[in-house]
Specification:
Oligomer: single chain
Helix content: 40-55%
Number of domains: 3
CATH class of the largest domain: Alpha Beta
Order of helices and strands: HEHEHEEHEHEEEHHEHEHHEHHHHH
Radius of gyration: 25 Å
Strand content: 5-15%
Strand order of the largest sheet: 2-5-8-1-9
CATH superfamily of the largest domain: P-loop containing nucleotide triphosphate hydrolases
Structural class: alpha/beta
Number of helices: 15
CATH architecture of the largest domain: 3-Layer(aba) Sandwich
Length: 335
């Protein structure tokens, strides 16, 4: 289990992920770990280290989103004494401290563009310099990076260097979201229940049959992080008790769409069906008439805003007659 750093699951996506870790663990080339927020990318990064021959060397992690752009270069590459105001002593950066181990760069998409060029140089030939130093140093660390962004889209938007992206993604692995793990949802619940019940000295909870079914159906948009937090709350509220479906649903995050980045494509019938299924799972007693009226109102209001209130132009956007649009707007106002 240490080799895979606590990665649990018997589903096909998890088996495929562990197979990739085994295949790529001892390669000197970078790995790019992609996956949604909360899916466990940091655990996958640790697994690459523990499954490799570098396991006896350091494993260091730095969150690129949590460091100031002004300090990022010093943190990664180090600086000499007096290199800038406040540099009262020489400082080794992460690349130097990692030695021949593994350096995990989390949220790599947040790295400033000016620093991306220097990171590219390290990835290409291992060379870097401390700030204020002319001596070139050599890094032998294996780089593992992670992101919850679509770096290809970031490249197209000019926010991420294409050459750095291609260098980082020599090996790219995808961490599956919890919604794709099937019965592993139960395995993860049991694992966290046992762990946290023991940690806080409380009796574990159990789910009744209906709650168990809802647990399996829920998509966990916050992924493993959300699943873990739900377990912690259930232990605190229902220690030693049986949790009903209504009690469980009260802990679900039903306030927002489960995939905020998912665009609506009316030509994708399967995608629309999946979205409808998620809506039905999240909300009881759905009114089809209310749903259709809500979408109609939203599109009419959007068209009117885009055309600055011009009814004829809005009708063209919506591909309906002007009189038809006026009639529907009147009906919406009445309801």
């Amino acid at each position: 289990e240490q080799e895979f750093d606590g990665l649990l699951g018997d589903s096909l996506p998890m088996q495929a992920l562990r197979m990739q870790i085994t295949q790529f663990a001892d390669s000197p080339f970078p790995v790019l770990i992609e996956g949604e927020s909360g899916s466990g990318k940091e655990l996958v990064a640790g697994s690459f280290h523990h499954a490799s021959k570098r396991v006896l060397h350091p494993y260091l992690s730095v969150n690129c989103a949590a460091i100031s752009p002004l300090l990022a270069e010093s943190i990664l590459f180090g600086h000499t004494k007096g290199a800038f105001t406040g540099a009262i002593a020489a400082h080794a950066g992460y690349f130097e401290d990692a030695s021949e181990g593994t350096l995990f760069l989390d949220e790599i998409g947040e790295l400033p563009l000016e620093l991306q060029a220097k990171l590219l140089r390290v990835l290409e030939n291992g060379e870097y310099q401390r700030i204020g130093e002319t001596q070139t140093r050599k890094s032998r660390a294996r780089i593992v990076a992670a992101t919850n962004r679509d770096l290809r889209a970031e490249v197209r938007a000019g926010k991420f260097r294409s050459d750095l992206y291609h260098r980082l993604s020599v090996f790219a692995v995808h961490v599956p979201p919890v919604r794709d793990l099937g019965e592993d949802k139960h395995l993860l619940r049991d694992h966290f229940t046992e762990f946290y019940a023991k940690q806080i000295g409380q009796a574990p909870f159990v789910l009744d049959a209906a709650a168990n079914a809802r647990w399996l159906d829920y998509a966990f948009p916050g992924n493993v992080r959300e699943l873990r937090n739900i377990v912690i709350r259930l232990i605190a509220k229902y220690s030693g008790k049986t949790v009903t479906a209504n009690q469980l649903i009260a802990e679900f995050d039903l306030s927002e769409p489960e995939n905020k980045d998912e665009s609506l494509n009316f030509n994708d019938a399967s995608g629309m069906t999946a979205q409808a299924q998620r809506h039905l799972q999240r909300q009881a007693n759905v009114s089809l008439d209310a749903v259709l009226k809500t979408w109609e109102r939203a599109y009419i209001e959007a068209a009117m805003q885009m055309t600055h209130g011009n009814l004829s132009q809005a009708a063209k956007l919506l591909n309906v007659n002007r009189t038809t649009l006026y009639s529907r707007m009147s009906t919406i106002e009445e309801t």
